[in-house]
Design a protein that fits this description.
The complex is a heterodimer of chains A (114) and B (115). Chain A is mainly beta and 114 residues long. Helix content of chain A is 0%, strand content 49%. In chain B, strands 2, 5, 6, 10, 11 and 12 form a six-stranded mixed beta sheet that branches. Classes of the chains: A mainly beta (114), B mainly beta (115).
């Protein structure tokens, strides 16, 4: 029974397209996150979100937008994809913000831009 | 802004040996949390161990333990009796308390356990 699930696992698309990655958690957590892992394996926070507040990492281009239809979902929309967007994107969730509660990660979505 | 530094890009040890992965961090905060995550080739992110900054006692989880030196801002991970399944990328991570800024990760250490 997967706790944090992301779809799709792999996404190959052309430059300039718009795409979405879905994330769902069944842990009852109230905070969700998106991270980007680049080709050198470096992980960086993109967004954190709960039902009260969206915090955006200032380095994230505004082509990226998180959308949360409900507490269990945080989807990532990307417009006008660029070559540099190729990466693995991880969704995560936790109970509460910035605390000792560990974040549970999805298995990642590998995005490849042609 | 917080930074996390892992100075060992890659390490290799024999099975059953003990290995220590280093991590230092920089912050002006007093309330924070530290974590080690493991990422095997399967790409999953697996929590290995966690430490609250206000606790002086070092965390342990079976074969995994940390050496937390708050004044030195050091948080190393020791793996005892290493096993082939420990082969993975290991990431040290920092999170501020009371905020929602997410985890700040180091660049990772690729640990290889040789048979």
């Amino acid at each position: 029974d997967t706790a944090v699930s992301q779809t799709p696992k792999y996404l190959v698309t052309q430059m300039g397209n718009d795409k979405s990655i879905k994330c769902e958690q069944n842990l009852g957590h109230d905070t969700m996150y998106w991270y980007k892992q680049d080709s050198k394996k470096f992980l960086k926070i993109m967004f954190s979100y709960n039902n009260k507040e969206l915090i955006i990492n200032e380095t994230v281009p505004n082509r990226f937008s998180p959308k949360s239809p409900d507490k269990a979902h945080l989807n990532l929309h990307i417009n006008s994809l660029e070559l540099g967007d190729s990466a693995v994107y991880f969704c995560a969730s936790s109970q509460g913000q910035g605390g000792f509660q560990p974040q549970h990660f999805g298995d990642g979505t590998r995005l490849s831009i042609l | 802004a917080q930074t996390v530094t892992q100075s060992q890009p890659e390490m290799s040890v024999q099975e059953a040996e003990t290995v220590t992965l280093s991590c230092t961090y920089d912050t002006s905060e007093s309330n924070y949390y530290l974590f080690w995550y493991k990422q095997p080739p399967s790409r999953q992110m697996i929590l290995v161990i966690r430490q609250e900054a206000y606790k002086q006692q070092n965390a342990t989880e079976n074969r995994f333990s940390v050496n937390f030196q708050k004044a030195a801002k050091s948080f190393s991970l020791k793996i005892s009796d290493s096993q082939l399944g420990d082969t993975a990328m290991y990431f040290c991570a920092f999170m501020m308390g009371g905020g929602a800024d997410g985890l700040t990760f180091g660049k990772g250490t690729h640990l290889i356990i040789q048979p």
